[in-house]
Each structure stands twice: as structure tokens, then as C-alpha cells.
Amino acid sequence: MSEPLILDGRALSEKLRKELRGEIEGYVSSGLRRPGLAVVLVGNDPASQVYVRNKVNACRKVGIESLFYQLDENTVTEELLEVIAELNSREDVDGILVQLPLPSQIDQRGVILAIHPEKDVDGFHPENMGKLVAHAEDGFIPCTPLGIDILLSHYGIELEGKDVVIVGAGFIVGRPLSLLMLWRNATVTVCHIHTRDLKKHTLSADVLISATGVPGLIKEDMVKKGAVVVDVGISKVEGKIVGDVDFEGVSRKAGAITPVPGGVGPMTVTGLLMNTVKSYRKRMKVHSTSTMNP
Ligand code: NAD
User: Fold this and answer.
1) What range does the domain containing 228 cover?
2) What is the pTM of this model?
3) Ligand 1 test: best mutation among 234, 242, 264, most atoms within 8 Å of CB?
């Protein structure tokens, strides 16, 4: 039995980020300012703190200026909206990221709506979601779907006419990813908690993408031989980070598979960096010097 191809998001991220760093240094040496990303964290959720730290560090490494705002757990909606209004108006801020989920007293939808769509590098504003529906490429694609699309394309995985099955219809991953897969002319099926006979659908997948947060949901007998399997899930089980996919079992069937960690996670952060530089280029009216980060 041959081993599946490992879709190495960490290695690809390193390559893409090196390119981004070179591009940014080029702008800076020609006298332009650095791109700027504002990251806002409300409260002390440990997982969110880790995600935010990763994003801020990744920015620094590629030469994006990051402004970190840590707000108190008891922050109210109006206070957060004031911070966003200030960031919307700042010339040196190209992207604004408010780490989700927000504490329950905050109107999350109101906050997403308040971020200027041209600085919405997470791609959650309805204007950017609408552009995803309309296949308008000047919007921001949410970072995880963007990262997955780049990973698949890098490994030469054809999507046109393929059966892509997405398990999980969340707002951050599954839903926007289904639209992006339609851009690629795939035949898309979206499954979720109410899907009857999940296995019937997963078995039909040429490309199976799971984004549920249910550890071990996707098992060997649910995967077609040779399928490409992308595991978006992140859960902690007995202190270990695991995905949705039973990696060992599914590896016996899959033609290609992403590891957890080291697959989709780093590509998500790379997607964020790419969106921030995309915003910068548009605002500074400069063009990409890179073929990998157009
Ligand atoms: P969500 O809660 O918004 O959506 C989860 C989806 O999974 C829902 O549509 C739900 O119906 C479906 N689901 C739940 N249990 C199911 C089951 N037993 N069978 C079929 N469908 C089921 O979550 P989300 O924000 O989309 O995140 C999903 C997972 O992806 C989480 O583990 C999250 O941590 C992870 N995530 C990872 C990255 C990354 O960079 N790797 C980025 C974002 C989210």
C-alpha cells in the first residue's frame, strides 16, 4: 500500500512568506511605508490568545507592522466600535482583524459590519461575502478557504468537474469555501450536522474537506480510495492538537492528505498575510512583484 502525498502547509507557507517578505522589503527600500495590520483581541480566551500571538509573530517575520489591541473581557460593543472607527480612519492600517468569537455581551454582527470592507482582511463583512458569491476577485476571501485553495493549487490538484465534499457549513470555513470551490468549477456538496447518511456523501468525494471540530469524525471507511483529504478541524484531545480526520486510518485510503498540525493551520495565517498585502497594494497603488502572491 503506497503512502499518501502529504500536503505540507508549513513548507508551502514558509516559501510564500519568504516571497512576501522580499516583496515588502522592495516597497520599503523604494521609500514606501510597511503594510500594517491591526489585531484586536477582547478577553482572555486561551485558544484565541494563541491564534493572535501566531498572527502577530507571522506579521513581524514578513515585515508587516502589527498593532495589537488587547481589550478587557468586559468591554462593551460601543467601546469596541470606537476602536474600529479609529482603525478605519488610520492611513497606516491596511487590515483590521477582530479575533472571534467575541464575549457574549458584544454584538458580533455589528462589529463585523463596522469594519471598513476595504480593510476587512478576514473577509467576513457582507460586502466581501457578497463578492465571493458574485465571483468578484477584488474582495477579500476568508483566510482559511483562501489558504486551502492555494495549497490545493500548489500541489496541482485539479478541481474542475471534481466532486468536492465539504463537511461543516460554518460561516468561517465551510460556507465561504463552498463558494470558492464553485469558482474552481467543482461540483460541491456541503454536509453538516443535519445531513442524513454522511458516509454516503463522503464516499463520493474526489476531494473531501472536513471543518467541523469533531475529532475523528472522518474514518477510513468513509473515504474513497485515492481521494484528496483536507483536515481543517482543530481540537484538543488529552493535551494534543487533533483534526477531524483519523489520520492513520484515512492515510491507508487517501491519495493525498493534510497533517494536523502543519496543514491548513499555517496556510490560514499565510492567507491573512496575503490579504493584508493585497489591501496594502490597492491602497498604495502598487503592483505585486511576485508570481506566487499575485
Ligand atoms: P462552526 O461551529 O461554525 O461550524 C461547524 C460545522 O460543523 C457546522 O456546520 C456543523 O453543522 C458541522 N458539524 C458539527 N458536527 C458535525 C457532525 N457530527 N457531522 C457533520 N457535520 C457536523 O465551526 P468553524 O468555525 O467552521 O470551525 C470548524 C473547525 O475548524 C473547528 O475545529 C475550528 O477550530 C477549525 N478551524 C481551523 C482553522 C485552521 O486554520 N486550521 C481555521 C478556522 C477554523
Assistant:
1) 143-265
2) 0.98
3) 234
